[in-house]
Design brief:
The chain is of the alpha/beta class. The chain has one domain: SPOUT methyltransferase, trefoil knot domain (Alpha/beta knot, 3-Layer(aba) Sandwich), CATH 3.40.1280.10. The chain is built from five helices and five strands. The chain has helices at residues 14-27, 49-64, 85-97, 115-120, 134-152; strands spanning 2-8, 32-38, 72-82, 102-107, 123-126. It has a five-stranded parallel sheet. Strand 1, helix 1 (14-27) and strand 2 form a beta-alpha-beta unit. The longest helix is centred in the C-terminal third of the chain and has 19 residues, at 134-152. Belongs to the RNA methyltransferase RlmH family. It is an enzyme of class 2 (transferase).
Amino acid sequence: MNISLITVGKLKEKYLKQGIDEYLKRLSGYAKVEVLEVADEKAPEQLSDLEMEQVKGKEGERILSKISPDTYVIALAIDGKQKSSEELADSIDKLATYGKSKIAFVIGGSLGLSDEVLKRADEKLSFSKMTFPHQLMKLILLEQIYRAFRINRGEPYHK
């Protein structure tokens, strides 16, 4: 299975990089996992609705350029479906069973994802109704993917 995390913005925080590297190392025994970062669009603090859509649109184009037609896309979105760790594990297992060997999880920038990216998504996933920094979500998502593989293999993992 090939899993991509497509994210907006470069990760700068050392402690997050260390955690992400640790989970990428742990996941290497289960799947080929890569993190693809696309540039975030520079924008002033105060944006009109039109300017926000333009920023998301430009970031969305960069995201979509990283997705092949045969990839199953899961967009992280606050209005997506919330799942337990076991439900996520089951979803990943079913995708593999039905021949979906390429999965891309997409994490937008600080303004969220463009309509074009959300339309391309096969599924929308929400981790919470709370808002998290998108850089922190990379680490949380990788941990949950690792947990999913452990669950699917019947391997012990702290609860």
